[in-house]
């Protein structure tokens, strides 16, 4: 396919008002937007909710929720009152500044309210992905010895309390809670709708997201309130959010995109956020776009590919004329998808790049810039990007190496929980360059072309999966002797999880056994982590000295067929 470039379309873009192409951007220019500019004391929840009420925008719709049979809205003022009530309940039950409060809820306003209420009183919020099963939940809460959890009775089945000894208090959103659990919705009804904001420092902890690399269990990436500077500003520049926008980010807050660009950035910008609670189907998604009159839409390549595969017939039933800006994140965005977007939606799809660790977008196709399909775009204002070779030397345009970002920027992670060594591993060539773990090249104009990962991390449908976590689960199955897990290229999902296993003596390969093993991971960890393919081998390739399974070798073999 020949790649064509897509020039920007005419329109009024936020970025053009604040930054001129070629100019260096100083992030301090954003500070006066915020309430803390003079006091120095900050709170994300305040800036997301209360500030808008104080500025007279309390009547504006903050959240617009849809599911199959429900629709609900909250104005900024209603959201403020609800957040206040919930934060009073949390406070009454002992939550204080710096405590970890895990939130394990479906896509629903309760999830937003729980997060904002915990943050309002200075707690560090840990959103858990809605599809996590027992082991995934347990490992994460145990790692940072979380004491508080907000969930519902349905999800509680996946919380193995005896194995999470640090857990002191469980709040549920059901109107009746069982045992010693607390119904946060019931108590909130009685609680005061005024609440004190706990003012914290810019560098105090805000949220923790567990994320995978190629080795070890997921690591807790901690971000600080300071992030709001870049999250607000990328909301303006990249998402191009304006006063009257209705914005929909399709990610669950358990993934960093769902927290930063599903909760924080849109609320910081004071727009209307759409929350959609049903499972993916082309019809229900188009329906949300139409019914909520979505103007800015942030989703992921797998979803676009599924919509594309679904064909124009479904699309034609809906009026999507409210849409003006579409964005993508999480995995490579194929040029075909961009061309589909041009044809089907009559809009360019803007790719964006960032990571859990970076806290906000760093590379993007700004609305004012030309898009080169196949490229993730260029660094946003204030960010400098290069590509380094193995020695840490900069490579010329066109040569592939390690994607590196000049440190620091406002939303860079504050720490990796209790793992200083891991934090340092992002800076192997010294403090100057943050190394993403992605391989890429730049063209002469500084456009970044993603080429893959330098480690074994798997990216399936934009979800980051650590092979080690899957291998650890697989090895617990009685039939499994040895295991190696890799990402296998897939036309729709980008990659799928593939496991190679050697069986213990006494076990024979059969379709039933493999299905049982797959379900074992699915029900223990999460559906997206369960291997879609399992191949039984006599022996796995290993390093001579340490006997570590060579995933790279498995990848090569898999390709060779
Ligand atoms: C990958 C998601 C290609 C990349 C926000 C990165 C991408 C990892 C893109 C981070 C993109 C993210 N094109 N690959 N536009 N965006 N990635 O932490 O490998 O879940 O390192 O954050 O996703 O995944 P994470």
Automatic annotation (TrEMBL):
<dbReference type="InterPro" id="IPR042099">
    <property type="entry name" value="ANL_N_sf"/>
</dbReference>
<dbReference type="Pfam" id="PF13193">
    <property type="entry name" value="AMP-binding_C"/>
</dbReference>
<feature type="domain" description="AMP-binding enzyme C-terminal">
    <location>
        <begin position="469"/>
        <end position="544"/>
    </location>
</feature>
<dbReference type="InterPro" id="IPR045851">
    <property type="entry name" value="AMP-bd_C_sf"/>
</dbReference>
<keyword id="KW-0547">Nucleotide-binding</keyword>
<keyword id="KW-0067">ATP-binding</keyword>
<keyword id="KW-0436">Ligase</keyword>
<keyword id="KW-0007">Acetylation</keyword>
<dbReference type="GO" id="GO:0003987">
    <property type="term" value="F:acetate-CoA ligase activity"/>
</dbReference>
<feature type="domain" description="AMP-dependent synthetase/ligase">
    <location>
        <begin position="55"/>
        <end position="414"/>
    </location>
</feature>
<dbReference type="InterPro" id="IPR025110">
    <property type="entry name" value="AMP-bd_C"/>
</dbReference>
<dbReference type="InterPro" id="IPR000873">
    <property type="entry name" value="AMP-dep_synth/lig_dom"/>
</dbReference>
<dbReference type="InterPro" id="IPR020845">
    <property type="entry name" value="AMP-binding_CS"/>
</dbReference>
<protein>
    <recommendedName>
        <fullName>acetate--CoA ligase</fullName>
        <ecNumber>6.2.1.1</ecNumber>
    </recommendedName>
</protein>
<dbReference type="Pfam" id="PF00501">
    <property type="entry name" value="AMP-binding"/>
</dbReference>
